[in-house]
């Protein structure tokens, strides 16, 4: 039972953690990629931002219904730490949840306050910037005050990011350059067609990367699955450990109870009935072990998700137990335990009943 508890608890903990993380990342990607086509200046491009003429082409293309522009910059908040990403984009301070995946209620912002910013969970943990605080950021060579009004979830940047309204960034720095664009398309226009036409028309077409949200999501989840492939190996190893424990336990029990089985044969039980008895015993012990392992695994998963992960990576995730997978594992482990118990007991019941109990005569 101890071997089954340990292996099944490991399976549940790993499966729940991976499922919770993957589901949270998937939901986050859908929130942060609402447009149908994205364009950005390639890192290897010869220019650092879109020319003004290209911004007009992006917004005025016949297939584009709406275009939102943004830019990304780097902030060095602490010389001893990695840089923080500054996300300059359109955010409605009255409805920030429509533009950012907030993790909680936002502080109400009024025009008499410093300009609003929204920080990620990593910024809260590393720099202590919490909603309601007024902080200073190094922009345009000087420290400028901003009001932290909300916290948003970001799985792409472990060292933190800060979101700021485009108008506030331009007022603070005088920089009106754009590095990224999100495009919503009109009905009847495909993302591939619009991207090809824009690349041919734009001044920075050769240095512009066009990508669809589905491709970003697919690539991100592929990277995620490759990163956590080792957890699937651990789950397989846990299953093997559990089955080995069952086989060893019932093999030793069957050998030790050879005379008991012989006596049962003497009073009329058939080999099939004795094997059925072993199967029932295996099922009962395994069911108890599964119940204990399930409870233990879910507790361990909660600790991993709610405590270890935020402390290690500075982001949170939603708890999501894979019910179908857990149910399948329970049925598979129960079936394997019964089969293993029966196979382990076949040798003991194969001995002639007289020989099995002759030491007791």
Question: How many alpha or pi helices?
Answer: 11
Structural class: alpha+beta
Helix content: 40-55%
Strand arrangement across the biggest beta sheet: 5-6-4-7-3-2-8-1-9
The rounded Rg comes to 31 Å
Based on CA inertia axes, which overall geometry fits? elongated
The whole-number mean of residue pLDDT values reads 87
Low-confidence stretches: none
**Per DSSP, what share of the residues sits in E-state strands of 2 or more residues?**
15-25%
Span between termini: 34 Å
Strand element count: 9
Secondary-structure element string: HEHEEEHEEEHEHEHHHHHH
Main sheet: strands, sense, barrel: 9 strands, mixed
Q: What do these coordinates show?
A:
The chain is of the alpha+beta class. It has 11 helices and 9 strands. It has helices spanning 2-32, 52-60, 121-127, 166-173, 191-201, 213-227, 229-256, 258-266, 271-313, 323-350, 353-357; strands at residues 37-41, 64-75, 84-89, 116-120, 134-139, 142-152, 161-165, 180-185, 208-211. The chain has a 9-stranded mixed β-sheet. The longest helix has 43 residues, at 271-313. The chain is elongated and about 95 Å long. The chain starts with a helix and ends with a helix. The mean pLDDT is 87.
């Amino acid at each position: 039972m101890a071997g089954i508890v340990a292996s099944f608890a490991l399976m549940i903990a790993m499966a729940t953690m991976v499922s919770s993380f993957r589901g949270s990342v998937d939901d986050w990607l859908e929130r942060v990629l609402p447009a149908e086509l994205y364009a950005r200046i390639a890192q290897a491009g010869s220019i650092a931002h879109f020319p003004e003429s290209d911004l007009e082409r992006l917004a005025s293309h016949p297939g584009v219904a709406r275009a939102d522009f943004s830019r990304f910059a780097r902030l060095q908040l602490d010389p001893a730490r990695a840089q923080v990403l500054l996300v300059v984009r359109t955010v409605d301070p009255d409805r920030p949840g429509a533009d950012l995946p907030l993790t909680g209620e936002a502080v109400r912002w009024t025009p008499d306050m410093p300009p609003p910013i929204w920080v990620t969970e990593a910024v809260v943990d590393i720099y202590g910037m919490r909603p309601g605080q007024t902080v200073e950021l190094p922009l345009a060579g000087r420290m400028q005050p901003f009001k932290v009004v909300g916290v948003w979830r970001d799985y792409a940047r472990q060292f933190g990011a800060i979101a700021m309204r485009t108008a506030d960034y331009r007022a603070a720095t005088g920089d009106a350059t754009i590095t990224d664009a999100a495009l919503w398309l009109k009905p009847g226009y495909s993302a591939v067609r619009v991207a090809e036409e824009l690349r041919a028309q734009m001044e920075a077409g050769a240095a512009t990367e066009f990508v669809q949200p589905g491709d970003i999501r697919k690539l991100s989840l592929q990277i995620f699955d490759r990163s956590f492939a080792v957890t699937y190996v651990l789950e397989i190893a846990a299953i093997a450990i559990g089955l080995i424990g069952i086989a060893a336990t019932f093999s030793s029990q069957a050998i030790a109870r050879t005379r008991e089985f012989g006596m049962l044969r003497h009073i009329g039980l058939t080999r099939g009935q004795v094997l059925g008895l072993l199967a029932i015993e295996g099922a009962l012990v395994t069911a108890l072990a599964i119940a204990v392992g399930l409870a233990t695994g879910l507790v361990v998963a909660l600790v991993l998700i709610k405590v270890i992960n935020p402390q290690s990576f500075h982001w949170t995730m939603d708890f999501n137990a894979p019910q179908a997978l857990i149910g399948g594992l329970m049925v598979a482990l129960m079936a394997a335990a019964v089969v293993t118990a029966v196979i382990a007991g076949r040798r003991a019941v194969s001995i002639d009943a007289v020989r099995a109990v002759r030491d007791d005569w």
